[in-house]
Amino acid sequence: MIEVGWVKRISNLDHRIITSVLIVVAIFPLAVPIQVPFTIQGYTTMYWDYITEIVPDGSTVGWLNNNVPMVDAQLGSGSTLTIVKLFQKECKIICFSLESTSPTLTTNYLNSAEKILGRELVYGVDYVELGYVPGMEAGLAAFLSDIPGFLGGRDMRGDSIAGMPIMEGIKDGGDMKDAVWGGGYSVNEDFAIRQWQVPYGTRLTSQAITMVVPSIVPYLATKQFYGILSGLRGSAELELLMKEPGNATGQLLGVSFSALYFVFILLLGNIIYAYEKITMKEEKR
Amino acid sequence: MTIDWVFIGLLVGNLLAIMSYTMIYGDNILSKITEHIIIGVGMGYGLAINLYAIYNRGILKIPDKPYYIIPIILIIMLYFRFYKPLSWVYRYPTAILIAGGLGLGVRGILQGQFLDQIRGVLPPISPLIGVPAGTAINNLIILVGTMVSTIYFVFSREFKGPLKHVHKLGRYFLLIAFGAAYGATVLYRYELFGGVMQTLMLPEARTYSLLFAIVVIGILVYVFKTGRTEWELT
What we know:
The complex is a heterodimer of chains A (285) and B (234).
Chain A: H1 2-11, H2 15-31, H3 42-54, E1 60-65, H4 69-88, E2 92-97, H5 102-117, E3 127-132, H6 136-145, H7 147-151, E4 178-182, H8 189-200, E5 203-208, H9 213-216, H10 218-221, E6 228-230, H11 231-241, H12 247-284
Parallel strand pairs in A: 1-2, 1-4, 2-3, 4-5, 5-6
Helix pairs in contact in A: 1-12, 2-12, 4-5, 4-11, 6-8, 11-12
Chain B: H1 5-21, H2 29-57, H3 69-78, H4 91-121, H5 133-152, H6 162-200, H7 206-225
């Protein structure tokens, strides 16, 4: 009877205790940072190959950054390091966003990249910020069909894009042969396939939050996306590849602990459920 | 003395994060305040940014491109929904929005998400021979999984005999896919949580976060002790 009492107590455990333990589990590795060894996933290797080998040196690359503050901790580091790598290859980057909060983060990433690179980036030559494109999928389609027309000839800062060297010859989405699709929260990667990859044949790679990775994987075999930088783990792997350990690597242990805790709770819940079922059956007999 | 607004923003964010996490101890005044602030700020910011975009890229262009007045009229028509005698007017811009969205989506779906995806699970893109065993097994699983999962959605006939097993296998594949999607969602939430925790634990903000946590816990204890918020879960 005592055993059953314990089982009942665990099965009716207040969720507030479970979440409080989770907070401790997540904070502990941050307070006492330990570097955990991890391997590079195939998706990240494909992403790395794309930005290092497939994108031609000195080319103009589109970067549709849809990171919102919520996902910044996961994808921010990966975004910054991607920019660094592209600038190391002397690429030019055309930045724009489908999320209203993303342009601020774009500026942050560019500033961080500039610090890592240790050289000044020239606005209008090395990069341009075209800002927020409203209208989600319809907005993206309109933007890519006539970029200067959609923008009214002005960038995010209100400057004319007509005289900018980076915007020379950029009329539509097809003029950017390569692009990085920065996955946000509400912006769907299908938009990129439908409005960019299919109509213009632009090669795309993706930075995605962990939640949407399973829905992007089918596009890898067909090369509709070249690799995925998948969430925090992807960012940490890119930090490892670029030898720039940072925020993502620091968080990895906390997330791993939390995931282990989740698995433990899940197993415990199922074991107790099964135990209760068996006990009830025996009592009925 | 100059005010470091970025740092103040960081502290405000941290305080709101701690306040919103009090939700796990029950709906309370702190979590409610945070919810309202976040919704208000988000809506206000979104509205301002979008109005700015409409003004700059729409209204200001009307003298050069007079047809830009059409979407502006359609936007105004959408608001007729709030005026009951003429609320039917909003149906026209809504219909145009749906039709436009559908048309835009369809132009890429057929090629990008239907034909290319069929191509993607078949050789030569996903070969079963002449590749390492691991790749071949992966490709086979994807091929079989795609077929049996599709068969699961054939509702026009009852599956009997050997076909029953195909149907069942399709269900198992779907369940595994749901499990994978759920696992990815859980991990994503943990990553969000980890990100917030990391911001709270930044060296420059750590002391303030601890202070905020103490104050918030104090308030929580007060509201639960005084019965302003129910501790017992309903």
